[in-house]
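We modelled each protein-ligand pair independently. The example shown here corresponds to the adenosine-5'-triphosphate entry; the chain sequence is given first, followed by the ligand as SMILES.
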Amino acid sequence: MGILAVVNQKGGVGKTTVALGLASAAMIRGRRALVVDMDPQANATTGLGVFDATTTIDEVLAEDRAGAASAAVRSSGWEPAVGHAPDLVPSSPRLAQREHQLATDPIGAQDRLRVALDGLADRYDDVIIDCPPSLGLLTVNALFAADRVLIVAEPAAWSLDGVEQILRNVRRIADRQSGRPDVAGIVVNRLGRTRDAGYWFAQLQETHGDLLLEPAISARAAVTEAAAQSMPIHLLRRDGAEEAGDQFAALARALDSRPAADAVTSLPTQRLDLTAELDRSDVVAPAAGVAAFSREL
Ligand SMILES: Nc1ncnc2c1ncn2[C@@H]1O[C@H](COP(=O)(O)OP(=O)(O)OP(=O)(O)O)[C@@H](O)[C@H]1O
Ligand SMILES: [Mg+2]
């Protein structure tokens, strides 16, 4: 899979959930995975059962040295009966300050993570970078470090806007780096059976059908519980966990088999203007419906 950045500037769409689901899938497939937590919220770090990190991605980025990330690597707290537990470069809330400091560096602001992973990424089958909900310098560092970008979208109002913004940013970075990173695709997460979810899913299909990966990840309480218990979804024993695990495993296989897409050609030629097609009240009401559905879980 190489180095995969899991992105969306929108908060709460499931970036961390998908990153951890893919790490769990790698584990049960006997692959060596490294998760790099680039989010000051450190949700991937705690989701991997690490609560006492001392050396984190914050120190790594401060150091600005080739291979610096090696010093921060540690095992996750996951305990598989077979296969390898993923390794982790943990995060900490201190990382939020680092982003401001990076902005004052005229030379190494954008590619410190790429430099820090030098020589380390090769030791793993899959390197998965969990990004924060912004398109700031932390996400930009992840995009510069990545071979491929996985966009997580939820079937909810305005998700198209976010996807197009990311695609534009990926294209600008790829233009500067001989085509790297590629767009691995878009995964729809937290797909429910409501009419609203179906509507927004159809919008994503219509606009970015060529990039949509299968399967979409269904909304399931088991997914939330795995994160809350710092458990890999594939080792959780409760209703829906097996089905969710199967979806993440299938997504991992789809990522392996999908040829790289071109961020330039996959941008829609004409931007879909939802406000022109729909009365605004029609748009707001379905979004509220999806939020209510999520709360029910
Ligand atoms: N498929 C799903 N089914 C049920 N709940 C889900 C699913 N995906 C994510 N969630 C829940 O939604 C919430 C947000 O998910 P997550 O933290 O992965 O999003 P995120 O994009 O990483 O958020 P942030 O932008 O804050 O980093 C979490 O409580 C998570 O457990
Ligand atoms: Mg997250």
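Residues 14 and 189 are 6 Å apart (CA to CA).
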